[in-house]
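User: Predict structure, ligand fructose -6-phosphate.
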Amino acid sequence: MCGIVGYIGKTNNARDFLLNGLEKLEYRGYDSAGIALSNKDGIHIFKEKGRIADLKKITNYSIESAVGIGQTRWATHGAPNKINAHPHQSISGQFTLVHNGVIENYELLYKEHLEGVTLKSDTDTEVVVHLIEKFKNDGYTTEKSFLKTLNLLKGSYAFALIDSKDSDKIYVAKNKSPLLIGLGDGTFNIFGSDALPMIHLTKSFLQLFDEEIVIVEKEHVTIKNLNGEAMQRNPIEIELDIEDIEKGTYPHYMLKEIDEQPFVIRKILKEYKGNENGFSIDKEIINSVIESDRIYIIACGTSYNAGLIGKQYLENWSSIPVEVHIASEFSYNTPVLSTKPLFIFISQSGETADSRSVLKYIKQQNYKALTITNVQSSTLSREADHTLLLHAGPEIAVASTKAYTAQITVLSILAATVAKKKNITLGFNLMHDLGVVSNVIESICEEKEIMKKISKEYFSTTRNAFFIGRHLDYYVVLEGALKLKEISYIQAEGFAGGELKHGTIALIENNTPVIALNTQEKTNLSIRSNVTEVVTRGAIPCIISMEGLDTPEDRFIIPKVNKHLAPLVSVVPLQLISYYAALERECDIDKPRNLAKSVTVE
Ligand code: F6R
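Assistant: Predicted complex:
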């Protein structure tokens, strides 16, 4: 949520780096944006409501600058408008600040330290920049003023601060919000909320931990803790293919990422391949799973939906009881924990604040944690005992697609590897069957014309839609409904087929679209009965069946795969029809309203 970037160098590349970098971070928030450019004439601020494209229109391109900071915003405090857009400045204009995060005690700090100061914006951030100036006016150095301010703050932040009277440095700080320093070639240094804005300039990065500040200069980077003590840190290499973060010929990242799913599954198979046609997962991880008497999966949104499928694999294949919890509810509805719990955090970004707060809590109790994430060295990965990577490549569209199938694939491999270690026979060859799944997804992705037709027919004007399924299909329809609602704004809900008659069926009226998923032999007849029940009440059904269970009335037939792995393929038509529904309704597919990719506020 929100993205920040910064550049300091010997040449006047700041503006281009900031604007292009913010575009790469736009998936993190996109309701307003701004940059501050520093040069001998002072600080030049450009900010605008809307997208980076809007900011680009109002930026003065004649201003040359070698130092700058920028932010793309997902509003928390204060409406998304030009005044609340970052950067924010102190009263004298000496300090300019951008922020990603939420300062929880900003009102209290204002009352205690800034009585009489007129605030221009409704943001929590503005208080921080005034506090820095207040301490500076009290006689502290800029660094001390920044540190003193940070020590007063409660909440999350990634800050970048410019002091116009000493703009050979940018002061950066991090707590709970992600931030990465990109090391240049000796003529510049850069930073950003993630690696995407930087990978065309460097592969060498410094990771930051919570409650650290960094003084970024053109030739040096100095990391300190909040007591001002210098910290040593070795750089890490991050290899990202530039093509992975470009749309190429695709109109939207979402479509590209849907199409990438077969390759992601093949990549996962390669990464986790062991000897003799089996899988290889770090022994310590397998032991942690085997030693646990119950697994608690913690996740949000799409990752939670993947967790529901993972539970089936871990329970049915490796015989370990599993509970799946929504991270944001865990602290209120904390279950009575078993004696040897293992927590599995599933998170594409590895930065989700709701999941992080559960991880923090369970680490205080000394419980073990495994994170399954797409982002190497993300916070959830660093703070857990173990990590399994998704190897899905950057997922840029806000709606998660390839991360979902990657999460299910990795969970299946984990469950199968544990089963093998426990001498439980699965009765099928997972490696082979996942290979078949990847081919089948590829073939479904070639059926875009059919998906387009279905979307047009069912979703071009409707206000709502229902998705039904039973058994594994129930969990997949939850994901299908989430996809449709988040990108097309159609009110869509997923239900267990058998549950409809206990209330929801009251909502069915003439022409209500009902998408029914039918991939499991066990539930074939019962889900078809549920379809009949809604059709009798005026619904227009769209049945998606697995080959072998199909009848002529079905709208789409999924080629046959191992029934346990059906969620990996059956979600693909749902992703595609959501995509085309949003396209038909002229929605902003990659950046749906009100959302952001990495949800770093609780
Ligand atoms: C929906 C979507 C979200 C995320 C959720 C968790 O398409 O992307 O529901 O799944 O915000 O994010 P991660 O997986 O990064 O923890």
